[in-house]
Write a structure and sequence with these properties.
Distance between the termini: 111 Å
Strand content: 5-15%
Oligomer: single chain
Order of helices and strands: HHHHHHHHHHHHEHEEHEE
Largest sheet: 5 strands, mixed
Number of helices: 14
Length: 456
Amino acid sequence: MGADGTTARDAVVRGAAADGTAADGRAVRGAAADDTAARGTGADGVVERRWAVFHRWGPYVLLAAGTVLSLSAADAIGMTEGERRLSGALVVVAVVLQLAWGRAERRRPGPTAESACYYAARWAVGFALAWTNPLFAFYAAIGYFGVAHQLPGRLVKPGLVATAVTAAGSQSGGLPPDDGLGWALFGAILLVNSLLVALFAHFGELDEERTRAQAATIAELERTNAALQQALDENAALHTQLLVQAREAGVADERRRLAAEIHDTLAQGLTGIIAQLQVVAGTTDPDLVRVHAGRATDLARESLGEARRSVHDLAPVALVGDGLPRALEKTVAEWGERTGIRADFTATGAVEPLHGEVAATLLRIVQEALSNASRHAAATRVGVTLSYIGDEVTLDVRDDGRGFDPRVRPARTGSGGFGLDGMRARAERIAGSLTVESEPGHGTAVSARVPLVRHD
C-alpha cells in the first residue's frame, strides 16, 4: 500500500479504537463468564435459550457486520483488488464453516476434537480477514464467546489470547504494523487485551465454580427433599397403621374393661345373693330368713346400679357421694358382715381427692381381692390399708388364709374370674403396678402402687 493509503487506513481504524476496546472488553467479559455461568440458578431456561440463539446466529450477524463495514471502508483503508477477492473468498469459507459446524454441533456437543478444530479454523479465517481489513475484527471477536464449550480446559486461555492477537492487530491499525512504533503500539494493545482476557477469564472461572457449587447444592436439596418426601409418605403410612392398631387395641381394652366391670359388679353381686339365699334355704328361723333375704335384696339393688353405671363408664356406686377412703371402709365392713370374716380398714397419710379413674381402679382391686379371700383363702382375718405416700397411693390387702405358690399359675375354674391378672391389668392401665406375696399356709398379701393423680 502507498503512504496515503496507510494514513487513511490508520485514521479509520484508530478512530474506532476507543469503541473497539470497549466492545472487546464486553466480548472478553462475555467469554470469561461464558454461557455456563449464565445457566445459573436464576431464569435458567430463558438464559440458556438466548445463549443458544446467539451461538447459532451470532457468527453470521458479526460476519455480516464486519463485511458491510469493511466494504464501506475498503477505499478509505486502501484495500487492493487481491485483498478484496481474498476477503470475499474467506467470507464464503466462514459461512460454509459455520453451516457445517451447526450440523456437527447438534450431533456431538463440545468440547470435542471437532469443536476444537472448528474453533481453530474459525480463528484462522477471522485472523486472515482482519489482515485484509481490520474491520473484520468484528467477526473475529466471536472467538471470545462459547470458548469453554468448544475448547478443552487447557486450551481455553490460549484460544482467548489468540483472539486477543487479532483484536489487538485491528485496534493498532491492522496487521502487519508498518514500523517500530506500530509494533510497539500493537504490543501494548495486545498486552492490555491479554490482561483483560486473563482477568475476565479468572472471574469467569470463579463464576463457573460458584455455578457448579449452586448446582451441587440444588441437587443435594432435591435429593434431601425427595428423601424427606419419602419419609413423610412412610410416616403417613405408619401413622395410618398406628391408628388402626390403636383402634383395635382400644376395642380390645374396652372389651376387657367391660368384662372386668361385669365380673366385679354383677358376678360378685350374684355370688353374694346366692350365698344369702343358700342360708335362707337351709334355715326355718323367720328372723334369720328376713335378715338374709334383706341382704340379698340389697345386693341385687346394688348390682343393678353397678350394671347401669358400668354401661355408662361411671364411677362405682360406692364412690358416688363418698371419697375413696370412705368407700373402701364401707366395702370392707359390708364384706365382713356378709362373710362373717373379720375385716379391718386403715387409711394413712394426708388424704387427697383422687381422679375418678384412679379411685375406681383401687376400689375394684379391693373388691376382687376380698372376693378371692372369701372364695379361695379360707381366711379368718383380712386387713386393708390405703396409704398416701408422696406422689403415690399404695393399697395393701392381707389375709391369713391358706396361701399359695405365686410361681404356679392356678388353673381357671368353671366359675370364671379375673383374679390376679385382672387386678394387675387394672393397675397397669393407670401406670401403676401390682405385686403378690404368698406362701402355702402363710396367707397372701396383695399390694398395688399407683400414681397420685388428683381430681380435676
